[in-house]
Amino acid sequence: MTERLDARLFAACETFGDAAALDGGEYCLSYAELAASARTIAEALRVQGLRADEPVLVPIANAPADIAAFLGVWAAGGVVVPVSRDAPPVATEVTRSAAQARIMLLDGRALRIGDHPPPPERPLLKDAALIIFTSGSTGAPKGVVIGHDAFARKLQEIDSHLKFTPATRALLVLQITFIFGIWFTLLTLLTGGSVVMRARFDAATLIDDLAAQRITDAAFVPTMLRKLLATEAAVRSPLRGGLALTRIHTGGEPFSPALGQRIAELLPTAAITDIYGLTETASSDFFLPTAKGGAFASGIGRISQSEKFRIADAQGREVPAGEAGELQILTPFIMNGYLDQPALTAAAFADGYFRTGDMARLKPDGTPELVGRSKDLIARAGAKVSPLELDGVLAQHPAVAAALTVGVADEIAGERIHVLIVPRAEAIDEKELRRWVTERVEAYKRPDVYHFGTELPLGRTGKVDRDALRQRLSAAR
After folding, report:
1. Does CATH number 3.40.50.300 belong to domain 376-476?
2. Could you tell me which of 146, 153, 147, 152 has the C-alpha nearest to residue 307?
3. What percent of the chain has pLDDT over 90?
4. In what order do the strands lie in the sheet with 169-172?
5. What's 234-247 look like in SS3?
6. Spatial CA neighbour of 451 closest among 386, 400, 375
7. 436-449: per-residue pLDDT in tens?
8. CA-to-CA distance for 284 and 299, rounded, in angstroms?
């Protein structure tokens, strides 16, 4: 039997009724109010002539009305295309055009934004829930089409690991234009918890917000946690009391043991789980939990029980343990494909395994650890160097708040290793840092050039943007 997200969410609304579902500060919705609002939106979409499996553009402000819009679109048989309400108009139009959406939901109103319905022959959209646009390697957007059944069952799989409950009070600072924020929100609602929604992440007020709202669960990308460590809150005494926070969920970019240890010292009431997944696999494929007070391991943890993985070379052959290859995932929760891009969809798979583009190697315990993106590996004087490895080493230095390593073209060596350092407080002595690195890293891996700044470059999702740093340094040469 095919699962649908709207059916499961309406069932949750029926079960939890007047309980708080979405807390946006000035505007809140109970479960019953969420269902009523969604039904009103669904009727407005039907009046506009929405067809089955038709894309609907939904500008997102990270507010309760956004989730009502998601549910309303699904109830009317449409497919949600989330876009940031703050996105430049040109970017929004690129998404609208790629989705071929003719209807937009804005403040609960269904508005016509196109004259013609989308083509009838788009098989990927049958029973689809979401089209999430992600950056492609060429810069062109890729519309990842996620089906109701795959995502609904993936949420059940995630919950078998994380076990959300009606007592969960989740702080949402992740944008729900992206898969991490979406699954975190939906899973909280499907299990009867409440979501405290914030329009954006604010490191300066985060800890006060955690305390005032009695938050039990919070989700962050590691960049957010590094920003938190750079605030005044990071130099306070550890918060051993006054917080209900019991769990931190992190993912979306590499999470180092050094970062985990620093967050555990600041927020010792919370266990931390690092989660690895992709939009294409409906998120959350590997889990690396750490009990409160426990040591932080490297790697990405163990794969979810319904999935398999392999580490393969360019010909699709599994590489020996300890050697680097591409991490590939075989999952029943896979995307329908990339919208209107059959060749790109076909190229994303090898023998049924999804090609993540991440380079990994097996640890002795049989779990993988990432060694970088295949396109990010630095080729320096004939040797391959992982920028992620250097990021992790440099982040352990007590005066380093964050580090980002890239390769920059060099006429002699092919590429030289450049690193951008964000100091924790005072300026860092470069000579001392070089000496410190020399004690920890083989000669061929040591950075050639150090740069210092106040922050790492970020992409539109809030993640560190390694390509942006590489382009900036290359242009400055």
Report:
1. no
2. 153
3. 68
4. 28-30, 20-23, 194-197, 169-172, 217-220, 247-251, 271-276, 286-290, 302-303
5. HHCCCCCCCCCCCE
6. 400
7. 998 888 888 899 99
8. 15
DSSP tag of 233: G
Q: Which residue has the tokens 């750490």?
A: 290
Distance from C-alpha of 450 to C-alpha of 447, rounded to nearest angstrom: 7
Tokens of 344: 């790109």
Query: Coil, helix or strand for 186?
Result: helix
pLDDT digits (tens, 9 = 90+) for 364-389: 999 999 987 777 778 787 677 888 88
> Which of 210, 209, 218, 225 shows the shortest CA–CA distance to 170?
218
For domain 1-367, give the CATH superfamily: ANL, N-terminal domain (3.40.50.12780)
| Residue range 349-354: mean pLDDT, rounded | 96
- CA gap 15, 32 in Å, rounded: 9
DSSP H or E run through 66: helix 64-75
Secondary structure of residue 457 in the 3-state scheme: coil
Domain boundaries, the chain: 1-367, 376-476
pLDDT, tens digit, 9 for 90 and up, residues 15-59: 999 999 999 999 999 999 999 999 999 999 999 999 999 999 999
Is the distance from CB of 206 to CB of 172 less than 8 angstroms?
no
